[in-house]
Design brief:
Strand content: 5-15%
GO biological process, one term: tRNA queuosine(34) biosynthetic process
Number of helices: 16
Shape: elongated
Helix content: 40-55%
Pathway: tRNA modification; tRNA-queuosine biosynthesis
Order of helices and strands: HEHHHEHEHEHEEEHEEHHEHHHHHH
Keywords: 4Fe-4S, Cobalamin, Cobalt, Cytoplasm, Iron, Iron-sulfur, Metal-binding, Oxidoreductase, Queuosine biosynthesis, tRNA processing
CATH class of the largest domain: Alpha Beta
Radius of gyration: 22 Å
Pfam family, one: Fer4_16
Largest sheet: 4 strands, antiparallel
Cofactor: [4Fe-4S] cluster; cob(II)alamin
């Protein structure tokens, strides 16, 4: 009985320390993910992961935490709000086909670094209280079923769009985990509250949510603009609109996000006016400018070539104008077959001959 009381007390202390460190919620769960493992295997069997080979490369480590970090018996799950601006501001950018839309999670400092430092501080706090213990912290950087774990830890439920939704906070938040050998008291799993709503399915610009709780990543704008390394399928290019890095449409449509709160983290605030940039302006950035203005940002991971590829598509979808055509033609000397292919497609959308400068 003393052990149970001790574990209860420590679990509650961990939650309080987490809140003091800036996490909006902390939950604890066990490592049993059999149902999530089956869901993942079915998803992989349908090839919905596209070119994301890392989704199956690690075998069962993703769904069996003790295989990834030996001795894990409990998982501490955290979430941190990141919404940097009101949804009306996002709607305005999406409604302007000459503006560059970037998924709002990527406007500020790279969330991996911020959450990882906070998780380390939480682990240090636990260690200072109880002494050495086994643990490993993760922030979207290893084979971890973070949403399934967060759902079991009571942080929210996995919605029909595959994002985690919290009844009091919507879905605009990041997740992080600490795998530990501490036998902590676990929380009650969240239950699904999507009901008959299909707003996310209806709004998806490429119809990537092929059924409730099933996303075909190969059609998803986030996959196409971030994960895909090669050419964006021609048939999907017009559907991407002005989204040059990621997509937030399913979250914007979700009625639970009326409860979302703006972040208090300054590091998540937009840098270099990335929330209000025009397509022609960001397309004109040199590679040095791109590297400078995406320093410390999640955007840098796609590199300059894919950055230009994405914007070329968006410019192809923009209304025809002299500034758009000139911007595209100024890149015709750029040494990249992939960029050239997307440039030519974009110019053809404006009935321009890509061979004429």
């Amino acid at each position: 009985m003393e052990l149970i009381d001790s574990n209860n007390n420590l679990a509650e202390q961990i939650k309080q320390w987490g809140l003091a460190l800036g996490f909006q919620q902390v939950g604890i769960t066990d490592t049993h993910l059999a149902e999530a493992e089956q869901h993942l295997q079915r998803w992989l069997a349908k090839d919905y992961h596209g070119e994301m080979a890392y989704m199956h490369q690690h075998g069962l480590k993703r769904s069996r935490p003790a295989l990834l970090h030996e001795g894990t018996v409990s998982v501490i799950c955290v979430r941190m709000d990141y919404l940097p601006e009101a949804t009306a501001a996002m709607d305005n950018v999406l409604a302007d086909p000459t503006a560059a839309y970037i998924s709002r999670y990527a406007l500020g400092r790279d969330y991996h670094k911020i959450l990882r430092k906070r998780l380390q501080k939480l682990a240090d706090k636990i260690q200072a209280e109880i002494g050495d213990f086994g643990y490993r912290a993760f922030v979207d950087s290893a084979p971890v079923l973070e949403k399934a774990l967060a759902e079991k830890a009571g942080l929210g439920w996995i919605g029909k769009h595959s994002n985690l939704i919290n009844r009091k906070a919507g879905s605009w938040f990041f997740l992080g985990e600490i795998y530990t050998d501490l036998p902590l008291t676990i929380d009650v799993p969240a239950t699904v509250h999507c009901g008959g709503c299909v707003a996310c399915l209806d709004i998806c610009p490429t119809q990537a949510i092929v059924a409730p709780f099933q996303v075909d990543a190969r059609r998803c704008v986030s996959y196409l603009t971030i994960e895909l390394h090669g050419s964006i399928p021609v048939g999907l290019r017009p559907l991407i609109g002005n989204r040059i890095y990621g997509c937030d449409d399913c979250q914007l449509a979700c009625p639970w996000n009326r409860f979302a709160k703006l972040t208090s983290e300054g590091d998540f605030s937009p840098r270099h006016r990335l929330n209000t940039q025009q397509l022609v302006d960001v397309f004109a950035w040199t590679e040095d400018e791109f590297l400078t203005k995406t320093e410390g940002s999640a955007i840098r991971r796609i590199g300059y070539e894919r950055w230009l590829r994405n914007i070329a598509v968006a410019l192809g979808n923009a209304p025809t104008s002299e500034s758009v055509i000139n911007a595209l033609k100024l890149r015709l000397d750029y040494d990249s077959e992939m960029v050239q292919e997307h440039l030519q497609w974009a110019l053809e959308q404006h009935h321009e001959n890509p061979l004429k400068k």
